[in-house]
Specification:
The chain has 339 residues and is of the alpha+beta class. The protein has 10 helices and 18 strands. Strand 11 and strand 12 form a beta hairpin. Pfam families: Actin (PF00022).
Length: 339
């Protein structure tokens, strides 16, 4: 660990912004990340190892994960927004430095983001790994909600963050998170993906990822698809589930849209149709469902299997502000003005 002090604009700092679904990494001061890498890795035992406990091998990044291997499981290193598997994170960091940044870790200080509810034990483990394994010269860990507020020119704000596994409302005052006011909901991107999957299952539409499709014929809209399966080793259930999720997320990004006002069926029916073709060749136009599925983030009351205690984004913010008001007096009014 260096005794020098880092400051100014030309420090060459590397930013690690880690979430449940992906790691975004790049250089401080640039407009966008250099790379976005999935935090789910392909894990398999090396059969060439002669020891009683086979050595684990990892497939990292989008292309490597899509390679179908016998007995390769897809495993996430994250749990509840925090790093859960440190060996996998170490492999991911090595890959990031060598293959995506082409940089030496000891030459660049780093800024690492963390969720507001990260624990001291995990924070100390992260510092130990980065200093002792990667020899970084300097490191700073900051709450992602604080950085989001600063990015919008505010030191006091109510930050609503909707990620893969949850949506959170985090109050920030003068650059510090008010932990008593943090409110989380399990509704996030994965929940929307699950809603899309249920919608297609009800329509009896087969969800087959592109990497398993060998060939397909052109068919008319809503006709039964004609396709052949690509030969290869049988996939594991976790790998197949991950690939189907990628397909559903492609549909989400191309077709779904958040309404400007509470969901109205007449407005949704007047929405222009969006065409989408599946890897098997099946294709159709989608209209009102484009607004109906994302509406569950704001009003989950009409979704099957969702308990009444699960909060939408509006009640989430209200509950957080009320918690701040109880413990911090009039700070709540400042937060509402800076949502």
């Amino acid at each position: 660990m260096s005794g020098g002090v880092y400051g100014g604009d030309e420090v060459g700092a590397i930013i690690f912004d880690i979430g449940h679904q992906s790691l975004r990494v790049g250089y401080g001061g640039e407009d966008s990340p250099k790379a976005e890498i999935p935090t789910s890795l392909g894990v398999w035992d090396d059969p060439t190892e002669s020891t009683n406990t086979p050595k684990k091998r990892y497939n990292i990044d989008v292309t490597a994960i899509q390679v179908r291997r016998k007995d390769m499981e897809i495993v996430s290193m994250m749990k509840d927004g925090m790093i859960d598997d440190w060996d996998m994170f170490e492999r991911l960091a090595e890959y990031t430095y060598k293959q995506r940044l082409h940089a030496l870790s000891e030459h660049h200080p780093i800024l690492m983001t963390e969720c507001p509810w990260n624990t001291r034990v995990k924070r100390e483990k992260l510092l130990e790994l980065m200093f002792e394994k990667f020899n970084v010269p300097a490191m700073y860990i900051c709450k992602n909600a604080v950085l989001a507020a600063y990015a919008n020119g505010r030191s006091t704000a109510m930050v609503v963050d909707s990620g893969a596994t949850h949506t959170s409302a985090v109050p920030v005052h003068d650059g510090y998170v008010i932990t008593q006011g943090i409110v989380k909901s399990p509704l996030g991107g994965d929940f929307i993906t699950m809603q899309c999957r249920q919608f297609f299952e009800e329509k009896s539409i087969e969800l087959m990822p592109a990497c398993l499709v060998g060939s397909k014929d052109v068919v008319r809209e809503r006709d039964i698809p004609r396709w052949t399966k690509k030969p290869g080793p049988p996939p594991t259930s976790t790998w197949l589930s991950y690939m189907v999720r990628e397909l559903l997320q492609d549909f989400q990004m191309n077709c779904l849209q958040v309404a400007d006002s509470p969901y109205d069926e007449d407005v949704a029916n007047a929405l222009p149709m969006k065409h989408f073709e599946f890897p098997t060749g099946y294709n159709d136009d989608y209209g009102s469902v484009r607004l109906m599925i994302p509406e569950a983030l704001f009003d989950p009351s009409n979704v099957k299997g969702v308990g009444a205690s699960i909060l939408g984004i509006g009640p989430l913010v209200t509950t957080s502000v009320e918690s701040v008001w109880k413990c911090r007096g009039n700070w709540g009014q400042f937060l509402l003005a800076r949502l």
